[in-house]
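Design job #97: recover the sequence.
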């Protein structure tokens, strides 16, 4: 029986054997998006990216609020 390409679980049962064979293929190869996600969204790098993203989002919202408040409350 030839192994199949890709990841997943393969179950095969042989007629002349009393045992069943189950093999799990944990291939690390995947699409470019999966590699990108695995690199930037998990582990220590993932935590750092999330923290920097949160800080960046905070400052963007803060600046937008500051500019909006300045023009709304500006004396005429």
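Job complete. Output follows.
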């Amino acid at each position: 029986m030839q192994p199949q390409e890709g990841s997943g679980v393969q179950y095969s049962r042989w007629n002349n054997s009393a045992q069943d064979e189950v093999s799990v293929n944990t291939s690390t190869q995947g699409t470019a998006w999966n590699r990108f996600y695995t690199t930037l969204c998990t582990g220590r790098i993932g935590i750092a990216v999330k923290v920097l993203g949160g800080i960046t989002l905070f400052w963007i919202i803060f600046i937008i609020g500051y500019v909006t408040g300045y023009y709304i409350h500006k004396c005429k």
